[in-house]
From TrEMBL:
CDD domains: FAAL. Belongs to the ATP-dependent AMP-binding enzyme family. Pfam families: AMP-binding, AMP-dom_DIP2-like, PP-binding. The keyword Coiled coil does not apply. Residues 606-621 have a biased composition (Low complexity). GO terms for molecular function: adenylyltransferase activity; ligase activity; phosphopantetheine binding. It comes from Streptomyces melanovinaceus. This is Amino acid adenylation domain protein.
């Protein structure tokens, strides 16, 4: 990693200097460290783009000039970029211009794409004055019905990468002289970001964050993580909200250390590539949600990692979803031979409405976890409150503060707390920040609560305090945290029952720990019904997965009126969960994914075929060795892909015409499938191809076309299949 130059010690956090805004922070870095590396971006092909503070400021100033045309204080600006330096530059351009930046996942031109549905909702809610867009995404937008709310698109001309190993173009050309700062820089109380909460497609909420919120939370992260100028970091986290955006894009600039960014898709496809970056760069700080560590352990089972060195890793933060002791223990055990220390783990707790971090500390593996009650699952401490933040646990019914060890709702107060949501329809019942004329607040009236005469953020999370440390136990609100993403229970239930003639319109979605988090859907079925329980459950899983991205682990098909409701007819999800755990929820239980693989296996070299399948694939390939057509090669290739589908999704078998969603395949499993097939064939397999093609046969035919465009014809593909069938070792597992 470049950027170790220290011609000028950065002012700011280390020196005690405070900044009125992020714009002034960037200006200070550009003036004091113009040649030092701010960011790097690792591409899928291994090339690295680099941008210095000076160049970052110049390009951001160019963006700011375009955004600010027509007024000194432009309205919100929607950012539509893939991960990369183009996104980073556009973000800083908005911050310089004083325009609230609204990062969003780019939509895809696929029917029913969840990202596109969510994009339309965000667009209608925030009503941006401009859209800053990557050239590729601009072309995609032409194929998407965004509705009447789509404003003018700004797409600055691409330039030449600075320090890029392969001269790959980045988002903006370098100016000949340093651009002058905008005439009026934003101030402390100006809105910097509107970050939309993850997960929900039906009602996304834009959390309003001011420059003061961000700067305070960035300092808190710096203190809890122990960051300094010598920190080295790498991040695969999505750059569009909280952890990836604030923790890994903005905070490094405050402290003055460089960070290497990589695509989330590259991590999902090859989690160990993240660890190899940590090893190569001698990274000291990196992390992600709990599932990321699970993925690394799973994919490392049969990998040759003898050159992996994790001894430099001092801060392995773990947040955004429930922290599991088992995960940390297994990760530490697997990677201890490579220098990883368990004490590097840093469990933390936070949420978008608190900007990012609220509590956190390093894990002590020698201390036993806290068990709140006999028979309850042990809990991992998420540490004491971060600097400037106060944490209280209250009775959610009456707002009464609870004693040490008593479980209640977690309430927060401090300079990092938002004033509310963009376009909120009103202030909270207990008051607001008293900023008249601004179009945001608390839509539901339940975001804030009063404690001792002071306004607190009601997080909706449940937990308890023990000796000043926070233990998070679950959710009070009807929100399920699935692989670091929030999903509203209502979205899951609606996807399952809306327009579904096989079930009644009453359902309850919730999570339990067994000991890992398990997603459960209970749904009532009519007395007279068609199809078996397994068929009905399969349809429900497919509908939910396609609509929300959530993989149901357990489906409970209940008798009419078995799911509890209030007297006003509202489903009581917490009571349904309690009855399920007690075995008192009347219904047939079906498990989402059988653990037995029926003798087949998924292998690190990617064959994924049961023993009998190998022979049939080889025979099919050999029979058409002379001038094979696409159809002839598609048959053995789709057989291989079907075996990989089955192994990754942990089902006994998968037909070549069976849809991935039908066997519980989600985006995580799609990434694994892409990695395994790519490794087996030694040919590129984009994750997007797996997600866009529903069946093994469709994927096989798509890949043959994709490879042919790259000069790899059917004879070469067939030869690889034949070689694979003869060399794949037996009995290997993923």
């Amino acid at each position: 990693m470049t950027g170790s130059q220290r011609r000028h010690r950065p002012s700011g956090h280390q020196g005690g200097q405070t900044y009125a805004s992020l714009a002034r922070l960037l200006l200070d870095r550009a003036q004091g460290l113009p040649d030092s590396t701010a960011y790097e971006f690792l591409h899928s092909d291994g090339t690295v783009d680099t941008i210095s503070y000076g160049t970052l400021y110049e390009r951001a100033a160019e963006v700011a000039a375009q955004v600010a045309l027509g007024g000194d204080r432009p309205g919100p600006v929607l950012l539509l970029y893939p991960p990369g330096l183009g996104f980073v530059t556009a973000l800083w351009g908005c911050l310089l211009a004083g325009a609230p930046a609204v990062p969003a996942y780019p939509p895809l031109p696929r029917p029913g794409d969840r990202g596109t549905i969510r994009f339309r909702h965000i667009l209608a809610d925030v009503r941006p004055s401009h859209v800053l867009v990557d050239p590729f995404i601009r072309d995609v937008l032409a194929d998407i019905d965004a509705g009447p709310a789509l404003p003018s698109l700004l797409c600055p001309d691409p330039g030449t990468a600075v320090g890029g190993e392969a001269g790959r173009p980045t988002a903006f050309g370098r100016g000949q002289t340093i651009a002058a700062p905008p005439r009026v820089l934003p101030g402390t109380d100006d809105v910097a970001l509107v970050q939309y909460t993850s997960g929900s497609t039906s009602d996304p909420k834009g959390v309003v964050l001011r420059h003061s919120n961000l700067l305070h939370n960035m300092r808190a992260i710096t203190e809890v993580f122990g960051l300094n100028e010598d920190t080295r970091a790498v991040s695969w986290l999505p750059p569009y909200h909280d952890m990836g955006l604030i923790g890994c894009i903005l905070t490094p600039v405050l402290v003055g250390f460089p960070i290497r960014l990589m695509s989330p898709l590259d991590f999902l496809k090859s989690p160990l590539s993240w660890l190899r970056q940590i090893s190569t760069l001698q990274v000291t700080a990196a992390g992600g949600p709990n599932f990321a560590y699970d993925l690394c352990v799973r994919r490392a089972r049969n990998e040759d990692l003898q050159d992996l060195d994790l001894s430099s890793w001092k801060v392995a933060f773990n947040g955004a979803e429930p922290v599991q002791r088992r995960t940390m223990e297994e990760f530490a055990r697997r990677f201890a031979p490579h220098g990883f220390r368990p004490s590097a783990f840093l469990p933390c707790y936070g949420l978008a409405e608190a900007t990012l971090i609220a509590t956190g500390h390093h894990w002590d593996p020698t201390e036993p976890d806290d068990t709140p009650a006999p028979g309850a699952a042990p809990r991992v401490s998420c540490g004491p409150a971060a600097g400037g933040t106060s944490v209280a646990v209250v009775d959610p019914a009456d707002g009464r503060p609870l004693s040490d060890g008593e479980e209640g709702e977690i309430w927060l107060r401090g300079p990092s707390i938002t004033d509310g949501y963009w376009n909120g329809t009103g202030a909270s019942r207990t008051g607001s920040a008293d900023r008249p004329g601004e179009a945001f607040g608390d839509r539901s009236g339940e975001l804030f609560g009063d404690l001792d005469g002071l306004r607190h953020l009601r997080t909706g999370d449940l937990g308890y305090l023990r000796d000043g440390e926070l233990f998070v136990t679950g959710r009070r609100k009807d929100v399920l945290v699935h692989r670091g993403v929030n999903h509203h229970a209502h979205d899951i239930e609606s996807a399952a029952v809306r327009g579904n003639p096989h079930v009644r319109p009453t359902a309850a979605a919730f999570m339990v720990e067994d000991p890992e988090p398990v997603v459960v859907l209970a749904v009532e079925r009519p007395p007279a019904r068609a199809g078996t329980d397994e068929e009905t459950a399969r349809v429900l899983r497919t509908r939910v997965l396609e609509a929300t991205g959530v993989r149901l682990d357990v489906v409970v098909l209940c008798a009419p009126r078995a799911i509890p409701k209030t007297t006003s007819g509202k489903v009581q999800r917490t009571l349904a969960r309690d009855r399920f755990l007690a075995g008192e929820l009347d219904g047939a239980v079906t498990i989402g994914a059988p653990t037995g693989l029926g003798g087949g296996s998924v292998e690190p070299n990617g064959s994924g075929l049961a023993d009998g399948d190998r022979g049939s694939a080889a025979a099919s390939a050999s029979a058409s060795a002379s001038g094979p057509s696409v159809a002839e090669v598609a048959e053995p290739l789709s057989t291989l892909v079907a075996g990989v589908f089955a192994g990754v999704c942990e089902v006994p078998e998968c037909g070549t015409d069976q849809r991935l969603a039908d066997i519980g395949g989600d985006s995580i499993r799609a990434a694994e499938i892409a990695a395994i097939v790519e490794r087996a064939m030694d040919l590129p397999v984009p994750i997007e191809s797996v997600l866009a093609t529903a069946t093994p046969d469709a994927l096989a035919r798509h890949l043959l076309t994709h490879w042919a465009e790259q000069g790899v014809g059917t004879p070469s593909v067939l030869g690889r299949l034949e070689e694979l069938s003869m060399t794949a070792p037996e009995g290997t597992t993923l």
